[in-house]
Queue: 3 jobs
Job 1
Amino acid sequence: MEVSPDIHVESSRIQKQIEDHLGMGPGNLLFEYRQLDGLVRLDLITVNPRHHQSFLFRYEEGYDKLDALRKMLTYVQRLRDTESSYTIQWRTHGDKELQTSYFRAHNAYEALDKLYYGRDLNTITVFSVVLNPSS
């Protein structure tokens, strides 16, 4: 199945809108796609420029790549306001410096899932998970 150039242009345009809305450059956001049960799953991953660790920002599923991207754009523009903000303090094994990361999630477990995304649970020690006051 050949993909139309228009789809690439539209995908790039939506990805840019997501980057702009989040205030993150192309090197700090990764858009990873995979087929899952007849759908396309988009994992939006953030890369921290200071410690170069990556975390799951959010995933969306759609019937194709563009549908998943459009859902992600809707989320970053509006729906993320329905989630709480969490601060997690953690350290990788072998590192002496304590790191602080911030996540939007429905609960502390979801925030921890985003922290541990794509890594072995034994590679990070979590020191605290704090629900931030809402403004």
Job 2
Amino acid sequence: MNRYCFCLQVRPDRLDDYVERHRNVWPDMQAALRDSGWHNYSLFLRDDGLLIGYVESEDLEAAQKAMAVTEVNTRWQAQMTEFFTGIDGRPPDESFVLLPEIFHLQED
């Protein structure tokens, strides 16, 4: 399993709304993520809007492509686009910047 970390920028004036949307992620969206190969997926949000995501996947590109063809992801991304800056109208899941892993503490 590969580990991936990414970042995006949430509009500071929309932080509360963004957090609220993620308190109740649609069950069909969660199922689609799992079914398409997203595992151990977490989002972290700094108070200035810096969003850090972490996900494990055998192949993130394949997992993204699998999500891209789902109807639920199309609906979700359409609603999420308004929360972000710097994505130039693209869906957030096509706009994040992957961060290179530089250290990982191995389990014994």
Job 3
Amino acid sequence: MSKLSKEEFQAYLMQIRKLAEGPLEEIQKEVEVTNKFPKEFYDLSIKNDLYRCALPVEYGGYGLSELEILQVQEEFSRGPGGMRMHLHYAMDLNWRILDDYGSRELKDEYMNKFQDKSVFTCFALTEATGGTGADLHTMAVKDGDSYILNGEKTLISHTDCCEFAYVIAVTNPDSKKDDRLSAFFVPMDAPGFEVINMPHMMGCRGAGHGELKFTNCKIDKKYLLGKEGQGLEIAMHSLSVSRAHIAASNLGMAQRMLELSLQYANDRVTFGKPIGTRQAIRCKIADMSMMVHALRCMVYDFAKSYEENPTGEYIEEKAAMCKLYSIDTTRKVSDEMLEIFGGVGYFEDCKYGPVERLYRDCRAMWLEEGAPTVQRITISRNTIKHGAKMEYII
């Protein structure tokens, strides 16, 4: 494929917004009950190139810039949260880890299969017995031309629809440095690999989650990503970029919640006047609009920085800031939205849109790719290192 022109890209954004707020919303009525995506969702995503568009041209993609990828994500994030969770991953970690760290052999075999979901992945870092960083316990022991994996992972998304798992495991248990971990591209059908489904979630219905269990799971050494001992670097860099994508998702949700709130405030009349004319409501609208605008500026600045240098000095810090501020934004905007709608917004069916579901769905963002405390640790560490300086791409 060739890159889209500016006009073609703008038309594509409108296409994705209509998809998110139209057909995907209709499908979600069933998903809220079954907690499972029907085949129609995957078919529509393939038809609308949502697995393809973020890929480089050489793998059948659109060759979008990082900013354009985040703009597409903002549009589909206006729709159902579980589908957003699936598609957000499809636009980033799903293919990018293999592209960044896979061997030429692995990339030649699998990269072009991401474009139509012939290959989909999950990212397995978190463990019940540790955190999501250096304190992991899943082991990968070298055995000739293979590795033997033993251990467990938890809270892993997309385990219901993937063929491979990016697994971060301990290969050098005696080390107390960053080289303790390695990363692997593990086939889900490898002997000794088991998936245990987890309960339904409060929001983001349809996105499957599970626990992964490895019992003497043997994989060929070709599935090692990067070099042995590079696992923590791979995980942290990949998460840094993904945190900015979480922020773009929050941006899409917050923008739609603001629009719904404004629409209702203009229609709802009390004492002969629309509530949108009252100072108290206008103050809420002002705060919501300000935070959405500020978040968009942060996300776009990150995108420009990433395009200039994906491993730049400020990438990790900016991504964590985007994620953290986006949580504050969706918290404020969703709370104000519910106050503006009042009791009408608390019901599942609302003629203005999915107010109740958006309120539930956005709560998952507190947790995806690291809780607020993790973002603050990352930001403070980098701020101290940089002496409170920051680089801006204008």
